[in-house]
Write a structure and sequence with these properties.
The protein has helices spanning 3-11, 24-34, 40-49, 71-82, 127-137; strands spanning 16-17, 52-54, 57-58, 89-96, 99-104, 108-112, 121-126. It is an alpha+beta fold. The chain has a four-stranded antiparallel β-sheet with strand order 4-5-6-7. A three-stranded antiparallel β-sheet has the order 1-2-3, with no helix packed on it. The relative contact order is 0.18. The mean pLDDT is 93.
């Protein structure tokens, strides 16, 4: 069990997870679809859980049934049609009202401004820190 997985299981044991998390090959296909390699934490998250839900929060993910049609891949590709400068990021959360949270190749998390021409803004935390913060607030 990796550190990310242990933290989630210890602090959020009631979290909802995919019954069909993606295989390594499916993750590689998703990386190819979005055009970059996911960071270590994001890969660990996907391999262990597929997606996570806790309370009213449901993070994006990939599952073995939908593969590259999973919400993480589809939403990332859709966002790129409307927001400039989103290459090199994958969507991990939807806060509602057009507010999305992105993750880069180094597992750092960014908020996507609603303005189509404003680049993602760093939240100064990594993906694991974001998950713990978001679930703690749920």
């Amino acid at each position: 069990m990796n550190t990310f997985e242990a933290i989630v299981k210890n602090q959020f044991s009631d979290a909802d997870v995919s019954p069909n998390p993606p295989t390594k090959q499916t993750i590689e296909s998703a990386e190819e679809a979005v055009g970059f390699r996911f960071g270590t934490m994001l890969k660990s998250y996907l391999m262990a859980f597929g997606y996570l839900g806790h309370g009213a929060v449901e993070l994006y993910g990939i599952n073995e049934v939908q593969k590259c049609q999973s919400d993480m891949v589809k939403t990332t590709l859709n966002i790129r049609e409307y927001h400039k400068g989103c290459e090199g990021y994958v969507v991990v959360d939807n806060l509602g009202d057009g507010q999305y949270i992105l993750c880069d190749q180094k597992d750092m998390v960014y908020e996507l401004p609603e303005d189509d021409n404003t680049p993602p803004v760093s939240m100064n935390m990594n993906f694991m820190q974001y998950v713990v913060k978001r679930f703690s607030e749920a």
